[in-house]
Amino acid sequence: MAHRGSSSDEPQTPTGPTPQRPGPSRRSTPRHMGRGPRLLWLKIVSGVLALALAAGVGVVVFKIVGLRDSITTSPLNLSTGGPGLPVDLSRDPVQILVLGTDTRDGTGGKYGSNDSSSGWGKSDVMMLVNMSADRKRVTVVSLPRDLLTTIPSCTDPETGQVYPEQQSAQLNAALSYGGPGCTVAAVNEMTGLEIDHFMMADFNAVKELSTVIGGVDVCVNEPINDSYSKLKLPAGVSSVQGEQALAFLRTRHSFGDGGDRGRIRAQQSFLASMARKIQSEGTLTNVPRLYSIAEAVVSNLTVDEGLAEIPRLLALADRIKSVDLGKVAFVSLPTQASPVDENRLVLDEEPAQELFRILRKDGDVTAPEVNAAGSSGAQSSDAQATDGATGDTGAGTPNSDDGGAAADASTAPGNDPTAGEDVPAFDPAVQPVQVINASGAADRGEEMAKQLHELGYLLAAPVAGDAERTTTQLFYSAGFEQVAQSLAKELNVPQANVLVSGDYYGVALSVGQDFASGKQLAKTGGVAGGFKGQTADQVTCQQSGAF
Q1: Do the Cβ atoms of 78 and 179 come closer than 8 Å?
Q2: In angstroms, rounded to a whole number, what is the distance separating the alpha carbons of residues 109 and 389?
Q3: Which of 179, 254, 281, 507 lies at a 20 to 30 A Cα distance from 463?
């Protein structure tokens, strides 16, 4: 790729004799400095400082060597093309494929049996991370494990077994064809990228990491008691770590429609929350803390040989330590149901190829000028009301969270299909809107209902409030997506918090603690161009059992 820099980003050791530092000039030494007691004192202080410095360096070296010995490595790319040029972490854009393996090795059968004949298992989680060359952006693209794609021929580096090319194979199976390098090869072929590194973690890594950082806050709209993943959470915000953190990331049946899309949304929310916590606590500028995190996960981590040195891992942390949370974007790969198997996904080609193009150009998916294929005109992330800022290009599209269950918004009551461009597509005066006060502020429901009346939503009415919720959300039932999107634009509700739901008829505005006063929410970042996802500064809650 054109962005590649020099073949090595490690400092070069100078050759030849080491220059000798000149000794002190006799003429420049004050006479009184020759006194014995003071000279002795200076020698003692110098000696102590030298010993302290040596001890500190020794500890760092010991830690590096110890951690390096704990890391498992595997080849980066198992395709015939092999790995490309080394990336310069100091100046190039960097792509890292992050994998979570579902192998049950070492778990004592706690999470069920491993159904893969390969010791690698399959990829439970796949995320493509792009760190921009200017160090100002991080884009994380979630790749569904149910995605059907081409897996190129791969040779297992340990056994020598050759796996032939697989057409229309499930992407998460690539891991079992020789390890992470085969998944890298498959993603390279699909995206046109040249992935620089990979990191693969197992179940234990998730538990250890979430514990060492003191837990991660997650939010759910209803109580969760999932017999499959063993996730148990009350409604609202909870801090999860260890087993519960792992269960939250693995849960499928309790989020969204029970498929991979709902789980991906929960994973993005978890990572956004973790990013907020790590940045607020200054973890990325605290080398001892970084080492403690590294120590917690390296024994459960597999990386490519180029990323096996701990200093390179720390260099990655250095690249993102000052990134604005509004520029840390979590994006779902645009997909649609497979025409041959509704339980599998295929690329939604036009927007997916546009996303790949943006990544290849080291572009910004949060920039207002970003446009998904098929859309027209620049639009900001908070002004994408009617053409689907979350990837829902209209209710009922395969890319929507409801899997195509919602009816077209043109069927909303009061809608006029013949209306001109300057006329609203629906009559706000006849739209049913419930206002739920979950902010904790007295009479906030009545205040917001009155504001909506002023905006023309004459049927807006306060209803009995739920328990307090951290964040404001808009829920809509089938046929009311445009109404919800219009309200989202008026109130600055992030697209990540506009959700289809079967719990309400029409539109329901749940006013959270972040909207206890004022007429609009404070603006946050957002994913632009019709793509679906959220930025790390946006707090989201998971909806369950509503589809």
Answers
A1: yes
A2: 42
A3: 254
pTM as predicted: 0.77
Within 10 A of 408 (CB to CB), how many other CB atoms are there?
16
CB contact set of 518 (below 8 Å; sequence gap of 6+): none
Give the CATH number of domain 409-524: 3.30.70.2390
Can you give the pLDDT at residue 188? 96
What amino acid occupies position 172? N
pLDDT of amino acid 306: 82
Cβ contacts of residue 7 below 8 Å, gap of 6+? Answer: 85, 86
- pLDDT on residue 507: 98
Structure letter (DSSP) for residue 164: P
What secondary structure letter does DSSP report for 344? S
Q: Show the beta-strand stretches assigned E in 171-242.
A: 197-201, 216-220, 224-225, 232-233, 236-240
Q: Regarding the domain with residue range 73-360, which homologous superfamily does it belong to in the CATH classification? A: LCP protein (3.40.630.190)
d(CA 80, CA 153): 8
Ranges in the chain annotated CATH 3.40.630.190: 73-360
d(CA 502, CA 34) in angstroms, rounded, equals 87
Identify the pLDDT of residue 27: 36
DSSP 14-43: PPSPPPPPPPPPSTTS-GGGG-HHHHHHHH
Residues of the chain with pLDDT under 70: 1-69, 80-85, 103-119, 310, 313, 371-424, 466, 545-547
Task: CATH 3.30.70.2390 in the chain: give the residue spans.
Answer: 409-524
Euclidean distance between CA atoms 381 and 390, whole angstroms = 10
CA–CA distance, 10 with 8 (Å, rounded to integer): 6
Q: How many helices (H) and strands (E) does the chain have?
A: 10, 23
Exposure of 391 by Cβ count < 10 A (0-12 exposed, 13-18 middle, 19+ buried)? buried
CA distances (Å), origin 219, targets 105, 286, 301, 444, 543: 30, 28, 28, 22, 9
For residue 65, the model assigns a pLDDT of 55
Count of CB atoms situated within 10 Å of the CB of 54:
10
Residue that the structure tokens 């250890």 belong to: 208
At how many degrees (to 10) do helices 310-320 and 36-70 cross? 100
- Identify any residues that bridge with 474 across adjacent strands, giving them in sequence order: 498, 509
